[in-house]
Amino acid sequence: MIAREIGAFRGDRRVLALIVVAALALTGRAWLAEHPEHDPGAPLNLNDPRGWATATKLAALRSDVPECRAVLERSGVAFTPLDPVGEGECRREDRLTLAEAPLSPASPQLTCPVAAGLQMWIDKDVQRLAEETLDTRVARIDQLGTYSCRRMYGAATGGWSEHATGNAIDIAGFVMEDGRHVSILRDWAGDTPESEFLQSVRDAACQSFGTVLSPDYNAAHADHLHLDQGRALVMGACR
User: Fold this and answer.
1) Which of 57, 91, 157, 204 has a CA that sits 20 to 30 A from residue 39's CA?
2) What residue stretches are annotated with the Extensin-like C-terminal domain (predicted)?
3) How far apart are CA 123 and CA 98, in angstroms?
């Protein structure tokens, strides 16, 4: 009698445990449905907040051009795909231009992963930080280029630059809606709102790009921020 009651009690506990686990799973699925930025299986949308899974999803775009372009379309980012061009180490299979990014010169040729990171950085960080530190918004972002068929630092030998395939962009400064021109070369150092803004956007870029290099890295970057997607975010460099 007692043994049967103990057995029934253990069985009831197992059933109860299964019910609890099932309830938690359903609750978790419902929560992830409301927060796709934390769900590794949910399609990436650049308009969603950053979440636990965002960095992994961005990294996955580096090897999946069709999905990357689908992300831009899903996120309402206007772009123009371009045909492959070039040869050898400078062959560019993935080329596009962003139609509405406030870049000057306009419409540089980018890889899709760089375009996705750039759009996220501008929308989620650059404009917000401009408002917080300078009490204005960014009207234009000055860029020094994306494509250059060369090795790193222009050396004759050694590794190829991410610029060789357009997988990078160099940012020189920002023109604000109130007319101010904030320059990496002139305004990086010092205790000023402009310096705070520049260093804040550098730090924020590390959430959208695999490699971010600034004047703090070396003299070769004294006048620009180098942003590229040659590495996954979790393995990247932020200097």
Assistant:
1) 204
2) 67-239
3) 14
Element (H, E) at 97: strand 95-98
Q: Are 38 and 189 in contact (CB under 8 A)?
A: no
Residue with tokens 């506990």: 13
- To the question of pTM greater than 0.70 for the whole model, the response is yes
pLDDT bin (cut points 50, 70, 90) of residue 3 is low
Two structure tokens written together for 157: 């030998």
Structure tokens at 39: 């769900």
pLDDT digits 0-9 by tens, 46-74: 999 999 999 999 999 999 999 999 999 99
Could you tell me the CA-to-CA distances from 160 to 88, 163, 170, 189 in Å, in that order? 11, 8, 16, 30
Secondary structure (DSSP) of 35-48: -GGG-TTSPP-TTS
Can you spell out the DSSP letters for 7-43? HHHHHHHHHHHHHHHHHHHHHHHHHHHH-GGG-TTSP
- The phi and psi torsions of 33 (rounded to 5 degrees) equal -65, -35
> How many CB atoms are closer than 10 A to CB 67?
15
Give yes or no for residue 124 having a pLDDT over 90: yes
